[in-house]
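Weekly structure sync, notes
Attendees: PL (lead), two postdocs, one rotation student
Agenda item 3: pending single-chain targets
PL asked that the sequence for the first pending target be pasted directly into the notes so everyone works from the same version. It is reproduced below exactly as submitted, 394 residues in total.
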Amino acid sequence: MKRIISILFSLILLLVLVPQTLFATTLDDCDNSDIPSDKVSDCISLLSKKVSELGDQKKTIANQIAQFDSQIKITLLKITDAEATIAQLEKEIGVLGFRIGYITDSVSKLEELLKHRIVVTYQQSNISNLEIMLSANDLSDFLQRMQYLRIVQENDRRTLAELQTTKANYANQKDDREEKQAQIEESKQKLLGLKTSLDQQKIEKQKFLEITKNDETRFQQLLAQALAEKKAISAAFSEAISRLNSGEGESISEGQTIATVGNSGAPTCSTGPHLHFMVTKDGSTQDPANYLKDVSPGWDNPDPRSSYTGSWNWPISNPTVNQIYGKSYYVINFGWYGGGIHDGIDMDGGSSIQAPRSGKLIVGSTYCGSSVLKYAAVKHSDDPSIITLYLHIK
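Predicted structure, written out during the meeting:
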């Protein structure tokens, strides 16, 4: 007997403890095409963790594609979850609509019943107990009439209380329906955003495959090239600031030509002729979009269009933006620049480069691997804390 009890106790303990591990959601569960609704949130969390872990690993074609696929899967799960939420809310609104209709009918019936009861009670209340007794056939008839009067009065009070409760429920049901309707509209907007995001993620994956040609060697070359460019630009940045702050430079007027757009640094750290334009203030890089005026530049990159809120003329005419400042598409999806930011705006479209403001100009060069990267820099007269840099020039 003791052995049987011990076995039963072990089985109970197993049932209590095992579900946490045996029935936990796994990545294999999340790879299924039909994921149970109660596991959607778990899968979103697991896949998000996987994306983060892949981002910390060495950049390879395989793990970059895995990141894309996992992020697309997360978005698909969120779409499924949003659609399920909308369906559930619409079902609840249907139930609430039935309840509201039922309550409306009940209120009308209760009001009619109450009116009838009030009339009966009023009529009976005008008859004295003596008159009831005299008009009664016998004692039993008298007691029945008195009991009826009490019942009517109690029904009046009960019916009035029910009517008040029903009206309060009606108001609550209407509030619930309006709240759920607002939740549906919010969920529909969320769903629309998720579908837009899914389309964009698929485009980004395809763009990645096109640029890398799904070739590991080419991908590693692009990574090395971007990192070499970042180091060379950082060296040019430090050198230019040091020279300008020491008093070097010749005067240049606003709009005066500085240099021409080139491809210096190729092939080590440049893929073609373009201008890498940087703005620094007190030695820190700034987003040039905050200084350049809005001229609706051309757009030849996967990033969302930037807003330009400044007053400066662009350094080249008819510019087309190839890469934005900050966490650009290539930083996020390719891991360029060692995961750091892109510290300027890449553009092409014009051959000559003009100074957006008057100031002191210097030109110079630095090595980028086995190539030479040429640069120019201007320290602005109207605000000496601002220095603009122009790279890949000739």
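Discussion points:
- The longest strand covers residues 359-368.
- Residues 14-22 have pLDDT under 50 and may be disordered.
Action: rotation student to compare against the earlier draft before next sync.
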